[in-house]
């Protein structure tokens, strides 16, 4: 076997690819030897150990599957700019189909990939320029779809973060207020939820039935929580 001194960095990139990330995520533009000294940890104990105590390596390669020509879809990091633009509508459509089928986690992953394509392109534009804004307006509906998935997965703080980011740029985005209101309600930020739902009604009064339903649900949960707290505290003080 041949000793491969830089294999830990290669392995980290391969693991990033397997996780759907950019293989160079976290790496700076410097030579490989500098990378070894730059990072105290690669994020994987076994790779840190191999980096600290290099040893000969033997690789076993197993074929997992063979894909038909034309069926393989590149990861976003491997696409050209033109391929990214062409892929986004297709990935968006796949996400919508998965969501309709109830495959929420898989749909979120698709929306994430589409967002990653557009974010990569946006990083090459001057913030606030027409091209940057055009890309941002394509990112926003994808991000809202992603937030809808995260709401269903009960990952509320991520929804709060993303919706607030959208509203910092687009103050009249009704969907962002509504989703953020639902997330606030879920984590018991009552005043914030009520404020967001009030903003929804101010921007689109036709949504009153939907907002009223959310507010009634929040009020019912609050009453239930108050009743539970009274029982809990009564038990504590009666001891």
Describe the structure.
- The chain is mostly helical and 239 residues long.
- Among the domains are: 47 residues, no CATH class; 78 residues, Serine Threonine Protein Phosphatase 5, Tetratricopeptide repeat.
- Helices cover 67% and strands 0% of the residues.
- It contains 10 helices and no strands.
- Helix 1 runs antiparallel to helix 3, helix 4 runs antiparallel to helix 5 and helix 5 packs antiparallel against helix 6.
- About 5% of the residues have low confidence.
- It holds the Pfam family PPIase_AIP.
- InterPro entries: AIP/AIPL1/TTC9, PPIase_AIP, PPIase_dom_sf, TPR-like_helical_dom_sf, TPR_rpt.
- One of its GO terms (molecular function) is peptidyl-prolyl cis-trans isomerase activity.
- One of its GO terms (cellular component) is cytoplasm.
- Interacts with RET in the pituitary gland; this interaction prevents the formation of the AIP-survivin complex.
Shape: globular
* Tally of DSSP β-strands: 0
Secondary-structure element string: HHHHHHHHHH
Low-confidence stretches: 28-39
As a percent range, the share of strand residues is under 5%
Mean pLDDT: 86
Kindly provide the name of the CATH class of the domain at 76-153: Mainly Alpha
Subunit structure: Interacts with RET in the pituitary gland; this interaction prevents the formation of the AIP-survivin complex.
Domain AIP/AIPL N-terminal FKBP-type PPIase: 1-63
InterPro entries: AIP/AIPL1/TTC9, PPIase_AIP, PPIase_dom_sf, TPR-like_helical_dom_sf, TPR_rpt
Function: May play a positive role in AHR-mediated (aromatic hydrocarbon receptor) signaling, possibly by influencing its receptivity for ligand and/or its nuclear targeting.
